[in-house]
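Researcher: Structure for this, please.
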Amino acid sequence: MLDERVERIIDAAERMRLGEYVRYQSDRRARLRDAFLEGVLRGLGFMVGFSLIGALLVYILQALMRANIPLIGDYLAKVVMLVESRIH
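Model: Predicted structure, token format:
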């Protein structure tokens, strides 16, 4: 009965890859490398996402400006012109 429990625990540890996890946790270089790569990828993701959302916002503002909605059209025209002047 005790042998069966020990075998089940060993099987569960092998399925969870417990040995690999312990080796990974003890390898400081691997953890630092992975943390660095994660930070770089997260930064790139923020940069690309912000660029896409910003471009979409400028596109929507330009469409609203062309629609020439009273009161909003003049304000949006100024905003779009300021944004475009910053881009160029």
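Researcher: Any notable elements?
Model: The chain has one domain: 2-87. The radius of gyration is 28 Å.
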